[in-house]
């Protein structure tokens, strides 16, 4: 099928590439000329495992095109996806300016019936706004072209996005017109093998499904972080508690890992946006507000542990920080817990030697040159001349360090483990003090 995708960010690029990979003819449009030129040369703007070879192969095979020519791209697609960003507004609601700008462009250029599909994470009711924008543009030029607006939210995890896209656990289609449903079902047929993954519903339910999924996952994390804080107070070990509850299938093993708080471009933004939508409809979403506020304090928790250890004075101390990205397998630092920690350490007069396997460039871009930050080339290099180690992101390569070596490197012989990667006994056996999250027994 002929598909057009507006936006070559992480969602648009991964979706477009996967659709091309199963044989569809995909044109990706972006207003960023440099990005489009780069993509046409095979330069992938994001780090996402497995994506680069797929983009190159499908581009070479002539199934995946990148352009800034919106009119040409609109003429190409029977299905036109909107996958542009929805950054948070000042009040936490999703800013729709990019989505609606695309809708206007579509309205200005369509000449034949199309199905417009919203893939961006947008508040309930956005499809109606997209519909109205397109209709207004058509009316302005006196054109009458039938079109539908459907909602088809994405459930991609950064770092595993290609896999999520190629092997989805569900495909949510929200559409009023049965013809639109049929077309989207045909589009996704190659991903819908062996058992039914497609869930068809009305547009508003599809829009809400996306927020509900992310809000539920964020709730699980904040819940565990809260229990971890209680564990710390009462002298229990959250890792034992986690193992004690995860085997109940009603609870499950996923997303019950306490840590330094959730970050990224989705959870923080989506929880706030859903709370805001609720508020706009006269409902105060107390649980969502609590999920957000627990996460906000959790991002400061590592620093609290550090302060506790040092009796409130970390001036001129040097901290080795392992991990800057908001989670492993990405270079994304949006809303990353590391950013809060670094800001707090710097405010308190401490210095940082940081290492992240992928996010150094991004860190350089965010923080620029500063005396109190050294970005290192390896985990070991970060330890050199440091007083303490703080683990912020659970990259695999941080899982089993040589603790004796770590002990030799660190002047103050202490590890703050923001992701509970280590067993306290193992760390303490190397004569290192250990602080984890929710590990009351070691505090
Ligand atoms: C999230 C969802 O998991 C995807 O399903 C969704 O499609 C995506 O948002 C989106 O809306 O686009 P993502 O933000 O890539 O994906 O990252 P996650 O793997 O969900 O992790 C989010 C944060 O939660 C990370 O900072 C991670 O460290 C933290 N986390 C995760 C925990 O602290 N504990 C856990 O048990 C799990």
TrEMBL record:
The keyword Ribosomal protein does not apply. Residues 320-424 form the UDP-glucose/GDP-mannose dehydrogenase C-terminal domain. The keyword Glycosyltransferase does not apply. Pathway: Nucleotide-sugar biosynthesis; UDP-alpha-D-glucuronate biosynthesis; UDP-alpha-D-glucuronate from UDP-alpha-D-glucose: step 1/1. SMART domains: UDPG_MGDP_dh_C. InterPro entries: 6-PGluconate_DH-like_C_sf (IPR008927), NAD(P)-bd_dom_sf (IPR036291), UDP-Glc/GDP-Man (IPR017476), UDP-Glc/GDP-Man_DH_C (IPR014027), UDP-Glc/GDP-Man_DH_C_sf (IPR036220), UDP-Glc/GDP-Man_DH_dimer (IPR014026), UDP-Glc/GDP-Man_DH_N (IPR001732), UDPglc_DH_bac (IPR028357). Its EC number is 1.1.1.22. One of its GO terms (molecular function) is oxidoreductase activity. Keywords: NAD, Oxidoreductase. SUPFAM superfamilies: 6-phosphogluconate dehydrogenase C-terminal domain-like (SSF48179), NAD(P)-binding Rossmann-fold domains (SSF51735), UDP-glucose/GDP-mannose dehydrogenase C-terminal domain (SSF52413). It catalyses: UDP-alpha-D-glucose + 2 NAD(+) + H2O = UDP-alpha-D-glucuronate + 2 NADH + 3 H(+). It holds the Pfam family UDPG_MGDP_dh_C. It comes from the Bacteria. NCBIfam families: NDP-sugDHase. Belongs to the UDP-glucose/GDP-mannose dehydrogenase family. This is UDP-glucose 6-dehydrogenase.
């Amino acid at each position: 099928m002929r598909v057009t995708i507006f936006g070559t960010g992480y969602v648009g690029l991964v979706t477009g590439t996967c659709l091309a990979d199963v044989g569809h003819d995909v044109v990706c449009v972006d207003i960023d000329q440099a990005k489009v030129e780069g993509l046409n040369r095979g330069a992938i703007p994001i780090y996402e495992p497995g994506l680069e070879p797929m983009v190159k192969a499908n581009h070479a095979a002539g199934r995946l095109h990148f352009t800034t020519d919106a009119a040409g791209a609109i003429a190409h697609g029977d299905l036109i996806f909107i996958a542009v960003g929805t950054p948070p507004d000042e009040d936490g609601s999703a800013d729709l300016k990019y989505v609606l700008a695309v809708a206007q462009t579509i309205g200005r250029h369509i000449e034949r019936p199309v199905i417009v599909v919203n893939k961006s994470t947008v508040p309930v009711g956005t499809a109606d706004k997209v519909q109205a924008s397109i209709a207004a543009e058509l009316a302005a030029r006196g054109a009458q072209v039938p079109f539908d607006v459907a909602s088809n939210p994405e459930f991609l995890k950064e770092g595993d996005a290609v896999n999520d896209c190629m092997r989805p656990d569900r495909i949510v289609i929200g559409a009023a017109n049965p013809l639109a449903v049929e077309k989207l079902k045909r589009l996704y047929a190659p991903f819908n093998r062996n058992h039914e993954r497609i869930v068809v519903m009305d547009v508003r339910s599809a829009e809400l499904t996306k927020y509900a999924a992310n809000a539920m996952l964020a709730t699980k994390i904040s819940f565990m972080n809260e229990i971890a804080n209680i564990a710390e107070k009462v002298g229990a070990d959250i890792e034992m508690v986690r193992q004690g509850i995860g085997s109940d299938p009603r609870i499950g093993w996923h997303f019950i890992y306490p840590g330094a708080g959730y970050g990224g471009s989705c959870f923080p933004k989506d929880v706030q946006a859903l709370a805001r939508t609720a508020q706009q409809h006269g409902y105060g979403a107390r649980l969502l507000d609590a999920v957000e506020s627990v996460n906000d304090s959790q991002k400061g928790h590592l620093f609290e542990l550090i302060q506790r250890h040092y009796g409130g004075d970390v001036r001129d101390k040097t901290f080795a920080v392992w991990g800057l990205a908001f989670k492993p397998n990405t270079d994304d630092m949006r809303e990353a817990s590391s950013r809060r920690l670094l800001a707090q350490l710097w405010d308190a007069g401490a210095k940082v030697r940081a290492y992240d396997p992928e996010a150094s460039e991004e860190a350089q871009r965010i923080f620029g040159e500063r005396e109190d930050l050294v970005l290192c080339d390896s985990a070991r290099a970060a330890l050199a001349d440091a007083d303490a180690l703080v683990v912020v992101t659970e990259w695999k390569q941080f899982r089993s360090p040589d603790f004796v070596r770590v002990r030799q490197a660190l002047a103050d012989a202490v590890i703050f483990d923001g992701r509970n990667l280590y067993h306290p006994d193992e760390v303490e056996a190397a004569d290192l003090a250990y602080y984890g999250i929710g590990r009351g027994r070691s505090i």
